[in-house]
Amino acid sequence: MTVNGKPVTRGEFEYEFNKNNSDGASEGSTVEDYLPMFINYKLKVQAAYTARYDTLTSYKEEFRKYRDALIQPMLVTDEDMEKQVRDYYDNVLYANIGEKGLCHAGHIFIGLRQNAPAADMEKAKGRIDSIYAALKGGAVFEELAKKHSQDGTAQRGGDLGTFGPGQMVKEFEEVAYGTADSTFSAPFRTNFGWHIVKTYEHKPLDSFEILHDQIKTFLERQRLRERMAANIADSLSRERGMSMEDLMDVECERICAQDAETRFLVKEYREGLLLFEICDREVWIPAKADEAGQEKYFKSHKKDYTWTEPRFMGVVLQAADEQAMKETEALLKKVKDHRLWVDTVKNVINADSVRVRVEYRLFAKGDNRFVDTQVFGVEKKAAKLPKFPVVKCVGEVLKKKPSKWYDVLPQVQQDYQRYQENKWVEELRKVYPVVVNEEVLKTVNKH
């Protein structure tokens, strides 16, 4: 198609259509359903370009932030990452673990401070010796650990998991590695207290091929690619004598020329931000501020704002004491527009300290426990806050419909914004011609 004479390729349309019709998306199930929405999207973007929203400094900064977050990591090649994975295995894992391998062990631990009194030392020694005697007599190590061990491993039967060289204190490591598989050690002491170690298994470090994916995932989670990309970008910037901004412009163009999906995604960033900018400024903000328009829209669409169950329009007041509640009720009676109630309480009753908590909105049955009991007569226990024990609901019950447009303000504002946006798009269709190549359209996802 063309929009105001500017071409839109089948590839771009397919990218957007397939993305918005993936699992969980609900834009439309067929090309015919999706086409009008896509055209509306393109019309808004064209209007943004016409209004030169793409020249705004705020827009440019926002776009570059998204684009650079996408493009910069692509400066790191798969070969670069593979080298880092290999280096981590060779220079971190194997260098530290090496021929010594890994050890899976558990312990029974009796805590003892280094400078503990002699009586405490004797008591701890006697306790660990009695546990050791029980083990030698055939007691189950894990059961004794659950019962006697004085650290967090007790609930796991003393299991410490698998560890490598340097991960435990020296004395503990030497005993654990020096104990044969499926056997336990004699009691020994470290700076933390007394231990009996059971070594379940000695095993060598797994091969690089086995650990490859785990290492890669770990490095990705450590944001290694991002750090490498930042270093590469900095080096390229200095080598080429370019600013970082100019470098990312060049690299984005290069990568987009090589990869269609990246090209479409960058365009989606660019146009999505433009669309939001123009809709926000031209439609959403003005419509939200147009109270006269909202009221007029409400009056002509009253049938859309009815309900079968009563609603309560007002506030739930939770006061620190009876006096604060009386003052609040008296004050609210003087304020006709209940939209001002929250600010009134904040500025007058709570001027120096919070004496009354206020929740204001349209309540349906089940929305608030106090409204349910005091307004709708639902028998349920409504627990009160200790600091705000006096509770009262002030407002009116609306049986079938709102009495004023601002009783359902959020819904009216949303509907009015949508109404104004639709009117705006109708005008855009008159300004910017759209020509769809029907023969090419028929080939979408079929070529």
Offer a quick outline of the entry.
This protein has 447 residues and is α+β, with helices and mostly antiparallel strands. The chain has helices at residues 10-20, 31-50, 57-71, 78-97, 118-136, 141-148, 170-178, 208-221, 224-240, 244-258, 260-289, 291-300, 322-333, 341-349, 369-374, 409-431, 438-441; strands spanning 2-3, 6-7, 102-111, 159-163, 183-184, 188-190, 193-203, 311-319, 356-363, 390-398, 434-435.
* Number of beta strands: 11
User: Topology as H/E string?
Assistant: EEHHHHEHHEHEEEHHHHHEHHEHEHEH
Shape: flat
Distance between the termini: 17 Å
Average pLDDT value? 94
Portion in beta strands = 5-15%
Helix content: 40-55%
State the secondary-structure class. alpha+beta
What is the gyration radius calculated from CA atoms?
35 Å
Main pleated-sheet profile: 5 strands, antiparallel
Low-confidence stretches: none
- Number of helical elements: 17
If you had to describe this structure to a student in words, what would you say it looks like?
With 447 residues, the protein is of the alpha+beta class. Helices cover 54% and strands 14% of the residues. It has helices at 10-20, 31-50, 57-71, 78-97, 118-136, 141-148, 170-178, 208-221, 224-240, 244-258, 260-289, 291-300, 322-333, 341-349, 369-374, 409-431, 438-441; strands at 2-3, 6-7, 102-111, 159-163, 183-184, 188-190, 193-203, 311-319, 356-363, 390-398, 434-435. The strands form 3 sheets. Strands 3, 4, 5, 6 and 7 form a 5-stranded antiparallel sheet that branches. Strands 2-1-11 form a 3-stranded antiparallel sheet. Strands 9-8-10 form a 3-stranded antiparallel sheet. Helix 3 (57-71) packs across helix 10 (244-258), helix 3 (57-71) packs antiparallel against helix 11 (260-289) and helix 13 (322-333) packs across helix 14 (341-349). The radius of gyration is 35 Å and the shape is flat. The chain starts with a strand and ends in a 6-residue tail after the last helix.
